[in-house]
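WARN retry 2 of 3 for item q-0093 after timeout on previous attempt; input resubmitted unchanged.
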Amino acid sequence: MFELLSRVLLWLLIGTVVFSLFQKFYPTGNFVGRFVVVIFLIVLLLSFVNPTEPAIASLWRVISFPLKPLGASILLMTFAAQRIKGGAIDKPGGYLIGWALTILILASTPAVAYFLIQSPVAQVAYPNVALIQPKSATLVAFAEETNLANMSDVVSDTYISPLNASQSTIAFNPTKINIPPYLLQRPETIRRRGLSLEDFVPNAETLLLTTEVWERYLSQLYAFLSPR
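OK item q-0093 returned
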């Protein structure tokens, strides 16, 4: 009963937002804008009626682009660019650019994305998160000169903790050691070594990872809203 009530309330919230946006933009928009709104509503309806149709899935991936971090940033910057007149930008163009940059920076910063990827939903979207879970195996440490070739029941996997890794070791990695990336480290490891400056430098890999996790959240929301 609680789940059904939550689904109904969420549907009412989404319907209210869509209806308000439709009333605001549809009457004042041009033909292309109105056509895009109609196509979006049709695809949204068909995605719940026949979600297994490949054509509907492809159209939904295109239309749902503004719901992702990169798409939302591009859309906000596009709206802001329309406010540029005579070399100046009118309100609320500056706020739109600020929000676009905020979304883009937060989604591509490893220090921020780390907390997002630790959720159970993210473990489905990013399979390598399973690497941070404890394994049912015995960890044995040997000296560097130990020969493991004759030990059939021992899997040789050279590992070094990021706490003990120097910058030259991480950069060149001559022995092909396994250094777990920041996003795959456990919270207690992060607290022990602390945040470094590079964890606050945005990069494309983190943006891709955040997008995958966000798509998983959208899929979970779709599964919750769809009738069973």
